[in-house]
Amino acid sequence: MDPRQGSNCLPSTAADPRLYQPREDDDRYSNMGPPTGYNQRQSQQGYHIGRRPSSVHSNQDHIPTSRRSSPTRSLWGTEYPGFLDYLDDVDSMALEGTSRAQRSSDKPHHSQKRANRDEFDGPTQFLKKPPIERIAAQERDLPHVPINLDVQEQDEVLSQVNQRLSQCAFDFVAKYQFPIPLEADKRPVQQPGDREWTEWVYLLKRLATKRRIPARVLYNGQIKQLVTILENSLEMRHASAHRSRPPKDDRNVLQLISAGTQVAKILKDADTMEYLDRLYKETERLIYERRNSPIGYVR
Q1: Is the pTM here over 0.85, yes or no?
Q2: Which of 160, 230, 266, 293 lies most in the core, judged by the most C-beta atoms within 10 Å?
């Protein structure tokens, strides 16, 4: 039968797609991809070999998708390249969606939270107020804290601690050959005074956090306590640098010397530990003498 005679010459199964039942062996074509060399232009124009007449094109286009014949075979024994491409696109989109969902599930949940989230905007609680008597006892005048060293004497003591710790850090870095980053606005380090104590503290903290300081070079391997001990000694540099500050109480001055002693201890510098220990005893003795003196320190 000549297919060029029109659509009336089509088999009855093509005239009424409902009468067509796909064969069982059609499933073997379900995984077939588009022919090699297929592109978008060929998808619009069809195959050059086995091209169907225009009448068949128009008749097939009016059949709903759900009622068409087998998606992988046609009446002419060839495959529908457009529909196969559609199946490939559906599979690729499904795989892409699966991989995207997998990537999103791999991310930690905290990354989905807002960076500026304020935890106090959520559920909170308030404690019961203490009794009035306790509040009144807390808000009365603070007790007198003895101060027996004037500001100049305190600055002299704290400057000695600052210089000794700078020497301790200088020797520690030089002995173990730790690197010192070069800065354009600063000259290379040749002596302890080329860097302030705050800068030595920053260098040692960076070396510790970057795991460049092995635990074996520290006292009892206290690598985790190094940063805390260094930060406790920072107030000493702040106190000695600000001359207009109010005088510190005696206990605070002794605490700063003790903080310096802890730095020398964790860096295993016995000489610096002995020096700061003597300074602590001399300062404590001077404080006791002033405290027992009938004149004392005039503030």
Answers
A1: no
A2: 230
